[in-house]
Amino acid sequence: YEDVRSSHKQDGGQNMKIDRIHHICIAVEDVDKVVPLYEKVLGARVENIREVPGSHKVAFLSLPGSPPLEIVQLLSPLSSRTPRTLPLTRFVAEKGYGLFHLAFHVESLDEAIAEARGEGAEFIQKEPVTTPSGEREIMLEPEGLAGVMIQIVGK
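The structure corresponding to this sequence follows.
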């Protein structure tokens, strides 16, 4: 077998500098029903639950030796597509519930966006959104990434 890694980035371009998995996000119909199952079955611990009225509700869970989990429920109608909820409303409308996205942390979000655009990547949102914790994030279009929704999080 040929080692395909040896041909990766032969053009001298820069890869996005991912330093860790930031979180794994799962879209659910009802956060209040799902979270207790994750606690009982997986031993997850609830770190925080946040609700944006009329938009979404998210439970932040920790698991030993694992990236954090975000369990998210859409509260707004599927027709409501604000920059903050656009990726989630689109996902639920097209695919239903399940693994929503993988989020990767980068040191510089602006550099990561520029590098991804330079490689031809497209984004769902026009600009990054700022989270309540002060981080910035943006979603890549999943079509160019084997159908997997990828979120990039950074400063």
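Confidence is low (pLDDT under 50) at residues 4-8.
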